[in-house]
Batch of 2 targets.
Target 1
Amino acid sequence: MVKLSVSTRQFLRKRNPPKVFWRLCGFLMIKSLNAWMSTLNYRMVRYDAAADPADETFCGPVIYVFWHEYIPFPIYTRPHCRLAMLLSQHQDAEILSHVAHFAGLDAVRGSSSRGGTTALRELMQRGQGMSLAITPDGPRGPRRTLAAGCIYLSSRLGVPIVPLGVGYDRPWRNRSSWDQFAFPRPFSRCRAVLGPRIQIPADLQRSQIEHHRQSIETQLDTLTTLAENWAESRYDLAGSEILYRSPPRKNRGLALDEFPLRLHGSSAETCSYREAS
């Protein structure tokens, strides 16, 4: 969400600003984020309402996975929902960790390239009592390529993975960043598709990880493409509902194994996922 220039990083390393500086930046950013995101029109489709941390029927914990370019979405829409986010140890994520704090979310610092083992251990401890939010293609990409860490965590913790597809209506994108970070246009549409729970088998063998990695990546890509196409259209998906921001409230949840992706005035198409066994 925050990308500092090389010269800015070098300046901050030399100055080593105090923690209060980062907290102030995080505070200003969460206020700006809330003001910006509050202008959007939100709708969503949920395969399972009990997998939504803001729903009264929520049954967790779970591991949410979504692409790095849409990281502001859960911060704004699901604050104070007992979520821990995995963030890198780079300076770019220092501000983001404080943004998460002011949104009522926990932050665990680490990645596959730096501090990964420590972060995984901490995530495994926290996962016993709270849900985890992971951008599996971060912090450096490749874009929309799912790393295997979430598969390992799901298997070791016995916690299901829930893919989350997000899309904005013709967003501005940072073409110079590896993830082509998406900035939603004010007063535009935002659409989300919360996928089904996918339970990774316990005691997963190393040779089996790639199969599950590819499967989750395909499902996350499918849900994201669906959400993006939905946001850019003026139609609506059957079974969609208004996406309410936390705190939890009564929503008309969907507990569907499959639902018709019929756009008004178009032909029917069915999308179905099975829970992994």
Target 2
Amino acid sequence: MKLYNVAVAGATGAVGEEMREVLEARDFPIANLKLLASSRSAGKKFSYKGEELVVEELTKDSFKDVDIALFSAGGSISKEFAPAAVEAGAVVVDNSSAFRMDENVPLVVPEVNPADVRKHNGIIANPNCTTIIMLVALKPLYDYSRIKRVVVSSYQSASGAGAKGMSELTDQMQAFAAGKELHVEHFAYQLLFNLIPHIDVFQDNGYTKEEMKMVHETRKIMGDMDITVSPTCVRVPVLRAHSEAINIETEKKITPEKARELFAGAPGLQVIDDPANKAYPMPLFAAGQDDCFVGRIREDLSLENGLNFWVVGDQIRKGAALNAVQIAEELVKG
């Protein structure tokens, strides 16, 4: 088996650390693993398959002999350093929004459009976490009957804001328990005991940038510029795993029974749908899991060809790190 030299840029962030864990858990064929981060994090040590690895400072010279570079260090870092990685001969899988809508960069969810990996010119983009989780569930339905319209409300965990977002929620819980003042820094408002219908910046059309990512990315990944998407993204006081209430309109009717059958046969998806026994997906159970989970599958009472369902997936894992590693796995299939 051929082995590859792999670099993780942003290796000390929540997603970067998860990438390292996923690479190890899935036994990715690695000859050498290089961990890269800012100068502040250089020198930190992590274990990989029993070997101690020292984090190196990310520079434009970091990618000599690197075959695959997994980036999760933010859009500005990707724009600055990804071209240097490509110039050095690496294929970049980028987890930021820097290249997602570039027409020359494939945007890939391996369960949905794996063949697009082959269209790369050195960079492959990892979609937004909320889009990934939604499309894993939409794909088997779309293949049975084209989806005309999607209305989605997301309930996004603190992990969507990275390690700092998770820490802020944890700190607020501890402060509340101790009767201390709750500090707000990374979210628009206190997240504990609250819901914030605001993720990323608002656009001129009244939607947030996060919501518009779901619109544009869905069309690109599905290869269907006519599919309509109406999203509302909400931050909720959950540490890990995003949840989404999804309503679709299809060209031909999909019954709940047929939907369960389609979901059950789809990769990366598990059905938990037994309301009589209180069995339905929840972030409590999805956190740390590779698969997404779907349930509450029911007919839309207001629309002839409408269907409602509920999807939950771990934002750090399938919504980011795992999806990136799966893209790398597609790359090395040969």
